Amino acid sequence: MIVTSMQRNGFILAAFALIATLLVVGISKLTEGPIARQQEQELLRVLNQIILPELHDNDLYQSCTLVQHPELGQGKRRAYRAQRDGKPTAIAVEVTAPNGYSGAIHLLVAVHTDGTVAGVRTLAHQETPGLGDKIELRVSDWITNFNGQRVNDADDPRWAVKRYGGMFDQFTGATITPQAVVQAVKRAVLVVTTQQQHWHAAPANCYSQHSEVTP
């Protein structure tokens, strides 16, 4: 009798576990589409901030190719190609600053075909609120200081915060974070400038079923 009762209780628990698992999977499948569309809309909003709509007549989200370069960070990165009347105008590429104060800082850097910076946005970070988070546009307009800037070469001394002789402001009480961002943007600009012709000719493959991208 005891064994039968234990078996019955075991079956009941197993059934509840199975039902709970199926519910979680079902909810995940139902929300997968809306979440993906929301993420796409947010990304498009950011892309259209740093690559102005008048600079492209193609779908930036769909005109994306996976690229890989050690100066951008480990793994594959997304590069969004802008074109106007069939001619390349800009590229926005993901780059990681691994040396932020509190860890890696993920950025999206857009560069015109002439090598000038079209815009930069912070995608993700763990910097200290009230100090390092000034790299976010919602907190400060500091990130817009990259607009229109150009990197002369890999040794361009201007690409540092003012404390180190550069042209970019540091934050009060925080130097590591802005310096890490400045250096990451500089690397991205140099990479895009040398690789843009190849990247514009590459296939669009960012959102294929088997694409793997390092966050």
Structural summary, described in words:
The chain is of the alpha+beta class. The protein has one domain. It has two helices and five strands; from the N terminus they run αβββββα. It has a five-stranded antiparallel β-sheet. β2 (77-84) and β3 (87-100) form a beta hairpin. The protein is globular, with a radius of gyration of 23 Å.
Key descriptive features of the protein:
215 residues, alpha+beta, five-stranded antiparallel beta sheet, 2 helices, globular
Tally of alpha and pi helices? 2
The main sheet orders its strands as 1-2-3-4-5
Coarse shape: globular
Low-confidence spans: pLDDT under 50, at least 5 residues?
none
Percent helix range: 25-40%
Query: Largest beta sheet, briefly?
Result: 5 strands, antiparallel
> How many beta-strand segments?
5
β-strand amount: 15-25%
Span between termini: 56 Å
The number of domains is: 1
Which structural class matches the secondary elements? alpha+beta
Cα radius of gyration in angstroms: 23 Å
* Element string (H = helix, E = strand): HEEEEEH
Mean pLDDT over all positions: 86
Give the helix/strand layout.
Blueprint: H1 2-50, E1 64-67, E2 77-84, E3 87-100, E4 103-112, E5 117-124, H2 176-201
Antiparallel strand pairs: 1-2, 2-3, 3-4, 4-5
